[in-house]
Amino acid sequence: MGTIEESFRKACSRYGIPASTLTDNGSVYTTRLRSAEPGGFERTLALMGVRRKNGRPYHPQTQGKIERWHRTLKKWLAAGPLAKDLDELNRQLDGFRREYNEERPHRALGRHTPKEAYEAKGKAGPDPELAAREQARRDEEERRGTGMEASGRPVRRGPGVGRVRPVDVTVPAGLHRTDGRGCVVRARGGGVRRIVVNIGKKNAGRTVELGIDHGVITVVDPVTGEVLAGQVLDPARDYQRRRPSPGVNDAPGQM
């Protein structure tokens, strides 16, 4: 079984490199809810110039379209013979994908197939500036001797060096209005001191939703689900310094 990075590169070789990805918060996709360091897949995306988007925790509507697609797939598989082994199941899945995308006209697409509609449109591509920033960051890490393993994982640092360890604190999300500096101020409560999270002056006066899940602060737009900030809570400070994962978390994620 290959890694998610290998599978992604294989898909890119067949369909081209996308402008962005949308996934849930599985540990193979992101470490943002568990660590201040980006994971191997996140670093791979950044190096390729692909912007990462993650679904909002406990918000299943984000991946609603693919969930409905899974339901259709399961019905299609249930109507046919049971696969005897993994190879046969993969052949059945290939057959479904071919029928669904290349043979079945869709009413919402003017009776065209999804493949025809997809190929008729221009494609957004990766961001070369994002890729250049990630490469520069990697070069700097290598120069300082704090680079990555061959697998793409960051070299483990000593305790307390350059990061804050997550604390096991969970506070339900609540609505807040940012001040003129673009800061979200959450009053003391739920076992957490008063905290101030800066999400940028461009977000001044914006209504946002802030929650803490196992020591990770997440600020989102309650209407669009856009992730405005995601960082580890520092329980010793009121003002939470911005700690985006370089090259990965610098672009807002869509929920």
From TrEMBL:
One GO BP: DNA integration
Basic and acidic residues bias spans: 113-146
Pfam assignment, any one: HTH_psq
Domain of life of the organism encoding this protein: Bacteria
GO molecular function: DNA binding
Residues in the signal sequence: none
Stretches for region Disordered: 100-166, 235-255
Residue ranges constituting the Integrase catalytic domain according to the UniProt record: 1-122
Gene3D superfamilies named among the record's database cross-references: Ribonuclease H-like superfamily/Ribonuclease H
Name under which the protein is recorded: Transposase
Lineage: Bacteria, Bacillati, Actinomycetota, Actinomycetes, Bifidobacteriales
